[in-house]
Amino acid sequence: MNTMAEARLQTQKKSSQDGQETSLWSSGFGMKLEAVTPFLGKYRPFVGRCCQTCTPKSWESLFHRSIMDLGFCNVILVKEENTRFRGWLVRRLCYFLWSLEQHIPPCQDASQKIMESTGVQNVISGRAPGGAGEGQVPSHVRKEVQRILGHIQAPPRPFLLRLFSWALLRFLNCLFLNVQLYRGQMKMVQKASQAGSPLVFLSTHKSVLDGILLPFVLLSQGVGVLRVAWDPRTCSPLLRALLKKLGGLFLPPEANLSPDSPEGVLARAVVHAALAPLGLWTGALAVLRSLRRWGCGRRVCVRVNLAQPFSLQEYIIDARSCWGSRQTLEQLLQPIVLGQCTAVPDTEKEQEWTPVTGPLLALREEDQLLVRRLSWHVLNASVASSAVMSTAIMATLLLFKHQKLLGEFSWLTEETLLRGFDVGFSGQLRCLVQHTLSLLRPHVALLRIQQGDLLVVPRPGPGLTSLARLSAELLPTFLSEAVGACAVRGLLAGRVPPEGPWELQGVELLSQKELYCQILLLLHLLPQDLLLLQPCQSCYCYCQEVLDRLIQCGLLVAEETRGSQPACDTGRQRLSARLLWKLSGDFTDSDSDDFEEAEGRYFRLSQQSRCPDFFLFLCRLLSPVLKAFAQAAAFLHRGRLPDTESGYTEQLFQFLRATAQEEGLFECADPNLAISAIWTFRDLGVLQQTPGPTGPMLHLSPAFASRDSQEKLGQFIRQFICS
């Protein structure tokens, strides 16, 4: 970056003469290089609010009214003012004095509470499978409970916790420039902790340091000691004993047995009774292994994002009222893919990709569904509360071959903020671009060209794959528009050649009913963890949201035809006749009655000069997933089936890598995309799973055994891809 800092940034318009995948870093046409701020206007947007439908009381009561007025604090910045003492010696011992003043609540004896829990009492009385029966002495059971509980946890030692927090504070100051925490988000967590109920924290594991960083942050903010779950297989007995005294949790081995096994019934009952009030994070010893890598580089900044807390009890009561009828992906899409019908079924998609573990199988089917849909809410809130980083924006620009990085970086940052998402950076535009390129240096090549400009070239192979992973972090920001753009591409696929001019595509009239159907098809095809739809949100309401976004961003223009109802007409008489008699909970499904209201509404693609590039940009955001699915469809006749899921995933991944070398589609050579394609094909009925001697086996279903059916599947997926 030394040569880059010395390079002169002059105004010059250049284009790629030989069609190379390059981007020019130039200051544009006399553009004023202003500072990039992480918000628009006066207030920072708040993201990550809980669901207003399933938890309305928490949405209202646990929201801090002045949250957007509060700024950030550096949790590892400890000075004399953070202690009760003053003086020359205090300034040198402020870390140690601060750690001594941390409030550590006393540990309560949980054995008696666990003994009185319903699960343990069922085991004692013999009502549970494999229970002890009436002949066993309760004192023996109490000793066994204490033994199991001793394996899980130990009373935290305040002195060790304070000593560890002091050492961790010094370590984090050596590792990071600062650890930023949004005060408004922390105020909501502190307000929830004051209610007296136990807090459960779920982490998305953005970093291997989460296991030690997040408990330190919460302890320093007065929330309390966080219990962190560790894998006992990766720890020695000595390390396990130390971590338990620092608040670590270790599940007993017999707790992971199948629910119908007579062994470990008491252990599973103790685990269920002990882990309702504890916050769980999965720690990893990769923290220690990565210290050398972190220490070798220069110090960086870290930001901790927290979503709005909500009441689990409120969710359990209110979420059940939002459940409706659903169908599997095979019932929804397979007849349409094979050409057996054209009408989209009037129902929601049921797609459950939550890992089926022993504790989950022990629950009733209704409770299993409640846990799975809770995970959707948590995933939606965690992604929404995560700030968009500069590397994701720069990787997107480089991957899509944008020419002027300075101007496009500023534009994409502004578009992200306009959509209500938060960004994790600020500063002068040129400095931001320089710093971001330095972070992406392993994946790009910087070449000096004439007059001091720099040419940024993505490195082929693994470099493009890494850029694709980073650009995927920007997809939730433009997800609605990207789904709409790909749906429009699918609607025009049978009418206009893909390589046709934009003016020719703008001639076609697109009815609102056709757009709804096409968006629904794409929503059903895309995996649930990509769409991040809340389980209480109807797909038909999301279709209207997608259409509204396309109109707001200027890609679609309403075309009023003769005799049609104006798009701005709310249809007062029809609303009173059809919707006012519905229950309040049915308004979310009001759009799913039929599409008769949309019969007379038509749209065209806008002919503004910026629309073709923006349309292509949106389509390319979803292209890695769709291209991976299309290649998975082409691989069906080449794969060796039957095979295990892991074995077939490895086969498909090797095929994606080979195709990337031949066609240059390195953004598709991702094992996660291979897994997503196989799971989607399994839900679609392309692959079937049967029990085998070494585990579940995948084989090709009879409906897609012929090459003709496989080609129909490939055509169905390729219609949404914009070349």
UniProtKB/TrEMBL annotation:
GO terms for biological process: fatty acid metabolic process; glycerol-3-phosphate metabolic process; phospholipid biosynthetic process; piRNA processing; triglyceride biosynthetic process. GO terms for molecular function: glycerol-3-phosphate O-acyltransferase activity. Residues 1-23 are annotated as: Disordered. InterPro entries: GPAT/DHAPAT, GPAT/DHAPAT_C. Pfam families: GPAT_C (PF19277). Residues 285-689 form the GPAT/DHAPAT C-terminal domain. It comes from the Eukaryota. GO terms for cellular component: mitochondrial membrane. This is Glycerol-3-phosphate acyltransferase 2, mitochondrial. It comes from Bos indicus x Bos taurus (Hybrid cattle). The lineage of its organism: Eukaryota, Metazoa, Chordata, Craniata, Vertebrata. The gene is GPAT2.
